[in-house]
Model the fold of this input.
Amino acid sequence: MADLPELKHMVMSFRVSELQVLLGYAGRNKTGRKTDLMGRALQLLQKGCSVPIQIKIRELYKRKPTAPKPGEDGSINFKSEGPWFSGPMDYSNRMHHDPAPHSSSLGMLPVHPDVKLKHLPFYDCVAELMKPTSLVPRGSSKFQENHYSFHLTPQQAQDIAMSRDFRPGARCEYTTQIQLRFCLLEISCEQDDHFPPSICVRVNGKMAPLPNPIPTNKPGVEPKRPGRPVDITPLCRLSPTLPNQIEVSWAADFGRGFCIAIFLVKKLTSDTLLGRLKQFGNRHADHTRALIKEKLAHDPDSEIATTCLRVSLTCPLGKMRMTIPTRASTCTHLQCFDGSTYLMMNEKKSTWMCPVCDKPAPFHRLFIDGYFVEILQETSDMNEIQFHEDGTWSPLKTSKEHHVISCSPAAHKSSHKESRSSSSSASGPAPKKPKMEVIDLTISSDEDSDTESECDSPQPMSSNAFGDVISLDSPTPAPSSASTSCDSPMVASPSSNSNSSSSSSSSSSSSSSTPKQPSSPQKSQAGTPNPLAVESYVSCGSPNLVDDNFYEEDSMDYET
Done:
C-alpha cells in the first residue's frame, strides 16, 4: 500500500472525536483514552485497511479545522457561508457569489456524513430538503453558531399551502410539514432525535419553538430536552424564489458531534396507522397455539410444572374489552393489548413501549393475533380465559361475590316492632291503638305536685301511626262550662283538695268502666270541629270528648 504512510499520518493527527467516529465506522470499541483509541486505529492500517476505511480516514481528515492564515483572526463570517449549506439549489446559489473568499476555508465547511435518522411512524417522508449536516465547532469558543439555508420547489410550496386544515374545530395545522431534526453524529446505526446542549434555533429571524427541557435535581447538570422533531412550517417562506434562513446556536461538546437535517413530511393520524396495521394481516392462530404449547411444555428437570396460562381479554391501557388484540413480535408474553388504544396514546406522546412488559414495541414490529381474534368473536361476556397444554382455551369462571346489605336502624327497629307485635298477637289480643303521653300545660309549676297525686286517669289512646308523640297544648284558661262537662279528672285548687280527690277517683272509675261516646255537637255540619269541643279538650287534656279524626288532625298540628 503506497498510501499507508499518508493514511498513518492522517490518523496520527486525529482528535478523540475523529478517532471515535473512525472506530465506530469500523465496528471497533470506541471507548477509552486517546492513546487506546489511537492504537486501535493504527491496528486497522497494519492489518490491511479496506477501501471504505481509507475513504473514511480521508473524509475525516478533510473536515478537520485548519489554522487561520497569518494576519487573519480566527473569526469567521458564517452568514456569508449560507448558500454553501443550501440543499436543492446549492449550485445555482454558488454561481452568484465569488468563490475566492471561501477557497481558503473549504476544509472548515460541514460535510454530509452518512447518518440515518430513525423513521417516525406518524410521518411519511416526502423529500429531503437538507441532508444531515454536521454541526462542526469553529474555534475554541464554547458557544458556537452556524447558518444554513434551503429552498422549496414550486410544487412543494403549493403542497404545503394546500394542506392546511381549515375545518371547524381544527387547529389550522399543516398536514404537509417542514420538519427540523437533530441527532448525534454516529453512523453505526439509525439515530434517535437528540438535541445539542443549550440549543437555540431561529428560522428567518424568528425563534423556533423547541420541546421544554426535562428538569433535573442533580447540581451542575443541564436539563435535557426530549428528543422529537420540530415543526418549522409556520416560520418558513412558502415561496420557490425566497430562501429560508436557519440560524443554530449551541454549546459545543468536544466529545460528541451533532447533525442537523430538514425534511418535507406528511403527518399521519392513528386511524391511518391502524388501517396499515390491518393491511399487514393477522398472524395465523397456529403460531399462537405453538407458542402456548412451548410455554406449557413439561420440563423433566423442573419440579414445578405450569399446567395453564391465565390471560385477560381486557386491554391493560384502556381497561376495556379488546377489539384489535395486538402485541409486538419482540415480546415473549401472550397477553395482548388493544391496537387502536395503543396507537392513539402514541399519537399524543410517542413512547412505543409495550404496556405489558415495558419493552420497546415499535410500529413495524406490531401484529394482530389471529388466535385472540377468534376468542373474542366466540366470547362476548368473558373477560378472562386460560390456555391449556394442548393449545386450547377455556373461559375462566370467577366466583360470584355475595354482598351483605346491612339494615338501617330504622328498618331494624320496625322489624323488631313487627316481631314483638307478632309474638304478642300469638299470646293474646293486641291493643288497637298505641299509647300516647299527653302533657297539659295549663297546670302551673307550683301545682305539679298536687296534679301528679290527683290526676290518675288512664292515658288516652291514639291511632297515630308515627309512634309515641308528645302533644304540647297551648295554655288557655279553662272555662267553668267546659270543666263541668268534662269526664276526665280536673286540676283542683289548693283550697278544695279533698273534694277534688274524691271526685277524681269517682270519675276515673266511672270513665274506665263505661267509656262515654262523643256527643253529636263536636263537629259542625260542614266538617269543622266544634269550638266547645276544642275548648273542652284543651282544658281537660283528654281526647275522649272529640272523635278520632279531629284528634289526629290536632296532634299533627302540634307536632309540626
The longest helix spans residues 409-427. The chain has four domains: 4-62, 78-99+106-212+224-268, 272-298+305-395, 438-494+518-559. Residues 56 and 445 are 117 Å apart (CA to CA).
